[in-house]
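As a warm-up, study this chain.
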Amino acid sequence: VTQLVESGGGSVQTGGSLRLSCIASGFPFSLYAMSWARQAPGKGGEWISTITPNGGRTEYADSVKGRSTISRGDAKTTLYRQMDNLKAEDTAMYYCAVVLTGWSTRIGDFRYWGQGTQVTVVS
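Now compare it with the structure written out below.
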């Protein structure tokens, strides 16, 4: 059974940092691109970043570019997201997902979502 479990969220002050993790199981993690997406209260889903299976290519949404780093540890089948200089608009539920199409930044191409981890940025 494919499973993704996110963790690392919490409440943080503006300008602070968090590191999110996503532990994957039930599929060959090292063969798939992985992505992070988020959903803020009352808004639709927003793609955040994607990383290739070998970690050699990453891409970020403009809203987080320069403040966020996606990485992966294949030995631990874990996806990471380092978030720095957090802003109030980063408050959202964050999800990791598997990219089944090889490479995509479109939420519609993502499958096997985790349950999410909440990030709340307070001033």
